[in-house]
Design a protein that fits this description.
With 211 residues, the protein is of the alpha/beta class. 31% of the residues lie in helices and 21% in strands. The protein has a four-stranded parallel sheet with strand order 1-4-5-8.
Length: 211
């Protein structure tokens, strides 16, 4: 019952040359559909899989990704979110252009183009308002506040399907519910009182079990 996340950042934009028989990449949308279908096809005890697909706002196909759910039968097995950087948000604020590039983290990207940040922002917001997706992840802030990123072994690359938890490579979310009624003393009486000490005890135990 652990949701997963996949970052599409490393996938080549559509039409980019590849060294295989297809000669060019089919782009991120085809992979998004494949991952979505794979998740939708897996079920257990009446529950299906849960998946988050993310893409960095600097990827050249970000607008197409934002619109991928305009087709109501496409990418139905995954949530989608766009990782917004401070660089992009500052360009939106100032009404300037920003760089779409691939590879995204490269200092010498193979693909680089300057695009009006506010136009991209309008497309993203239109899709979010019209379809409820994509979600928006303030990525630089997430990386800054992520506890796991202080260790060299871990690097946050995505989030779980509902974005409560940043995920590292091969990671999945582990969610556990505490029955808060078990922390109420004398329930349904005039002497009812919430036992915060018991909640603390249960929370520590639950966190250790999830670890």
């Amino acid at each position: 019952r652990g949701g997963c996340g996949i970052s599409l950042d490393k996938l080549r934009p559509s039409g980019s040359p590849t060294k295989n028989s297809s000669r060019t990449s089919t782009g991120i949308i085809s992979f998004a559909k494949r991952y979505s279908n794979s998740t939708r096809e897996v079920g257990q005890d009446g529950r299906r899989g849960a998946l988050m697909l993310t893409l960095n706002v600097h990827h050249p196909e970000v607008v197409g990704f934002a619109h991928c759910k305009d087709d109501e039968e496409s990418v139905t097995g995954a949530n989608i979110s766009i990782c917004l950087t401070d660089e992009f948000l500052e360009a939106v604020k100032k009404g300037k252009k920003y760089e779409q590039r691939w590879p995204i983290d490269s200092k010498t990207p193979v693909i680089s183009q300057m695009v009006d940040a506010r136009e991209v922002w309008k497309e993203i917001i239109w899709c979010a308002h019209n379809r409820g997706e994509p979600g928006l992840l303030f990525w630089d802030h997430i990386l800054k506040e992520s506890p796991s990123d202080c260790y060299e072994l871990f690097k946050t690359i995505c989030t779980n399907p509902c974005s409560e938890i940043p995920l590292s490579l091969l990671d999945s979310c582990r969610l556990l519910v505490i029955n808060l009624m078990s922390c109420v003393d004398n329930p349904y009486t005039s002497g009812a009182k919430f036992n915060f000490e018991r909640l603390t005890e249960y929370a520590i135990f639950a966190q250790r079990m999830m670890d």
